[in-house]
Each structure stands twice: as C-alpha cells, then as structure tokens.
Amino acid sequence: MKKKSYTIMDILKIMPHRYPFLLVDRIITLDEDAVTGIKNVTINEPFFQGHFPEDPVMPGVLIIEAMVQVGGFLLLNKLEETENKLLYFMMIDKVKFRKPVRPGDQLRSELKMKRFRKKLYVIEGKAYVNDEVVAEGEFTAMVVEKGKPLK
C-alpha cells in the first residue's frame, strides 16, 4: 500500500467514476485487506430532487454503490497499471438496510477482503452514520482489462 489516507484528488487518479456517480469523498484508512471511506451526503445531491423530496432519503442502491466504490478502491490499490483495469461487481449478497441516510449525514463505509482467487474478489462491509450501522453486505467483483470482452 502506498499511503494510509487519500483525498478526493488522489481518489480521482485511481477511480474511473466521475460526477454524479463518484460516491467517495475521502479514504481515511487503507490497509492490506481493509479500507474505510467517507461520503458526505448533502442536500445538493441530484437524487434528492426526486427521492422523497419532502422527506429526503438516500436511495439504498446508492448506499451500496458508495460501499462498493470504497471496496473497489481497496482492490484497485492491490493491482498494478490500474489505468488499464476496471472492476465489475458481479454479485451483491446478504445486503441489509438498517436505517435511512439523510442530507447532512456522513456515510462511513468499512470494507474488508474476505477472499480472492485469480481475478475474483469477495469483500464484505458495513456502512455507518454516527457509529450506527445503516447498511451491510457482501460483494463479488471481477478485474477486467479496459476495452476487452468479458470471459
């Protein structure tokens, strides 16, 4: 691992996602097999315009997407030549939503490597707001070369 924490400018160099789909603002810890990332949830998020605008709640699928992006950061840091690689998430399992995430919350995703073999990685994790679990799950991803067909 290169360093322990990453700013948004560091993240942009590694992650292929961009607005409005980059859902990681900071990586606060990165170890060999674990990562913690932050997503600051603001009322300015485009999804709040249509997702219960009178009582805004972050969509569950975007909470999961934020989690898998943090996990993807862990996996991409294990690889060399990341500019030529993408991670495709293949399976989402054991997902549970515990509490809503609202504007003003700071979503903290903690993920760890469960197992890997060849090009397949399984990570598991939880997302928190104020030390309360809001979501959890297990995710399987495959590393692919950019521009090449899946095999």
List keywords for this structure.
151 residues, alpha+beta, Thiol Ester Dehydrase, Chain A, 2 helices, 40% strand, globular
Summary of the model, kept short:
By secondary structure, the protein is an alpha+beta fold. It is 17% helix and 40% strand. The protein is globular, with a radius of gyration of 15 Å.
In words, what does this structure look like?
With 151 residues, this protein is an alpha+beta fold. The chain has one domain (8-145): Roll (Thiol Ester Dehydrase, Chain A). 17% of the residues lie in helices and 40% in strands. Strands 1-2-4-5-6-3 form a six-stranded antiparallel sheet, with helices on one face. Strand 1 (26-30) and strand 2 form a beta hairpin. The longest helix is centred in the middle third of the chain and has 19 residues, at 60-78. The model has no long low-confidence stretch (mean pLDDT 92).
